[in-house]
Request: fold
Amino acid sequence: MKFTKKLSMLVAGATLAFAAGSASAADLTLRFGHLGAEDTAYQAGALEFKRLAEEYSDGAIEVQIFPNGVLGGESQMFEQQMAGALDVSVINPGNITDFAPTANIFTFPFLYKDEAHWQSVLSGEVGRDIAAILKEESSVQVIGYFGGGKRQVVSNRPLESLEDLADMKLRTNPTDPLIASWSALGTRPTNFAWKEIYTGLQLGSIDGLLNEAEWIHRMRFHEVAPHIGLSEHDITVRLVTFSGATWDRMTDEQRDVVLRAGAEASALAREVQLRQDAEAMELLKAEGAILYKMDREKMQEMVRPAVLDVAGRMGLAELYDRIQASAADNASGS
Reply:
């Protein structure tokens, strides 16, 4: 996938900033780990966070970036943050629900009306309140939200109507909201190892999966499952998490810098991810993927009873309703 000009400029800027910062010792050095490669929105956001934190602190804060999962998986990095051994990371909320149960809210499908609603949740009061709850649950501070991949249905058979979902062996993450929702849509949710998906689609062990365009293309799933249902049932959210131990020993001025840099870097990372998602979808079409428009309103109607039941059992009903209601608030304020 082509790399954007803006990201290349970020790399150059971060290199210059590091060279300038290395000339004098920083008061605070932050270690930032994530799973993304150098051409991902994760890295773009990390580089922007580094640039801004070092700029806003006049070099008193230095940020060292460790991409490609060199510090471990996301659950491992989150545990390192809880122990104070790592300062910053980018985390899939589904990977930390054992430590912070409220992170389950981001695993509900059809949570957002559209992209504008998603943006307003992450950058507004709801996002700040969720961050505060997650801090209470885990001691880890959320300083921003990356994300932006629009998740679709990938299938080895046509998806001309919702009836085509019936009895589909659908690989999903093993979370209650997803299992309940996709069961309500007639599929058979299946837990299947990520590394075995391609072969599983080839052999018929699974009929499809849920994924965003960038990863469909990166993993070449469209070669064996060329039918893509445009459900847009989710827009990914990735938490930018900050060690509570590090936070507690920082000054108020340092915290202000980190929060400001986190918010601005998150906005850029979401912009990059949305653009890469759109670019990947164009590549999929060019390489022979067949796209099907799906009836999102009908799908939401079908899953709503199951979603409300799961939200109630998880103690997330109030937060779920608040996010849903914010779509109307966002529309009236636009």
